[in-house]
Amino acid sequence: MSDLIVRKVGRAGHVTLNRPQALNALTHPMCLDLEAAMYDFAADDDVSLLLIDAAGEKAFCAGGDIVKIYNEGKSGEVKNALKFWRDEYRLNHAISTYAKPYVAIMDGIVMGGGVGISAHGSHRVVTERTMFAMPECAIGLIPDVGGTHLLGKMPGACGEYAGLTGARLSGADCIYTGVADYFVPSDKLVSLKAALLETGDVAVLQDYAMVPECSTLAENRKAIDAIFGQGDVSDIMQALETDPSDFAKSALKGALRGAPLCLKTTLAAVRTARQNGSLEMALRNEYRIVSTCLQDGELVEGIRAAVIDKDRAPKWKYPTLESVPQSMIDRLYQSAADGDFAVVT
């Protein structure tokens, strides 16, 4: 059975991620196949929208195939990983500019690469089972696949909070922060998808959408802005350490999991993305950073600790914020060694 099931049903193109045993983790071939399907459906006059969902009830997509990236990083053969990132980022941008409605059913876990193939779509559906997160700092990376763009568009300092702590956002949080558009109870998804496929009309989303319960981020917004609006990561960490609230304690625990290099780079990248507002520019900057992560950064060690050995005790090259050289942060503003990522039109 294919890892990506593509078919035309009724008035829609229907794509299903089909690796439930791996939480539908995204592989390079899946990226290429999704891109090809998008172009085929865009050219088909009988297709009015594209619907993307996933097999199983646990995850939409829990990220990319980082074990493969780890093995390539260990061997020093990084060409395939760099090609994967370039192709994935091109796909992310293509989703954001797709000519037809792109309806993503973000049910269950949505992390990393799963964010990139859903949250850039035109019509994004979450449920009470949605668990959205960008915890890349904890594996020695930064929120990529356009993640810094999405985080930069969140209200107040919610993007800094989500990016630095890897916080798990609920469906209600996703609506509040603008990374989703419709909240639909999971027991209504089968009926919703059938209606979308039959009619090809995104207006039916309004018939199923509900107002979710209050967002936890909304409830903690004042503290989030006060703490994560600080000037740099050191100031943020100090504010967390001196705040006795349960929220601050939980946020500090999440932030301490991140590689100091990645925390500092993420903060800079999110704020840069907020200033320029362009997804293409955010992807360019993200590629500049991730293209160095396998050889010069913390990614190999981060994946080892989290996924390979699972000891959850990474030995970072730069173990403290103070030990991170400014030259590593400056890479955000320097072209990638193999050339900058650019959208090919």
Structure description:
It is built from 17 helices and nine strands. It is α/β, with parallel strands linked by helices and 345 residues long. The model has no long low-confidence stretch (mean pLDDT 96). The chain has helices at residues 28-42, 66-75, 79-96, 113-116, 147-152, 158-165, 171-177, 189-199, 205-208, 216-219, 221-228, 233-242, 246-256, 260-276, 279-293, 299-308, 326-329, and strands at 4-9, 12-17, 49-54, 59-61, 102-106, 109-111, 123-126, 131-133, 182-183. 48% of the residues are buried. The strands form two sheets. Strands 1-2-3-5-7-9 form a six-stranded mixed sheet, with helices on both faces. It starts with a strand and ends in a 16-residue tail after the last helix. The protein has one domain (4-333): 2-enoyl-CoA Hydratase, Chain A, domain 1. It is globular. It is 47% helix and 11% strand. A hairpin with a 2-residue loop joins strand 1 (4-9) and strand 2 (12-17).
Estimated helix fraction = 40-55%
Question: Could you name the CATH homologous superfamily?
Answer: 2-enoyl-CoA Hydratase, Chain A, domain 1
- The ordered string of helix (H) and strand (E) elements is EEHEEHHEEHEEHHHEHHHHHHHHHH
Class per helix and strand makeup:
alpha/beta
CATH architecture, by name, is: Alpha-Beta Complex
Q: What is the percentage of strand-forming residues?
A: 5-15%
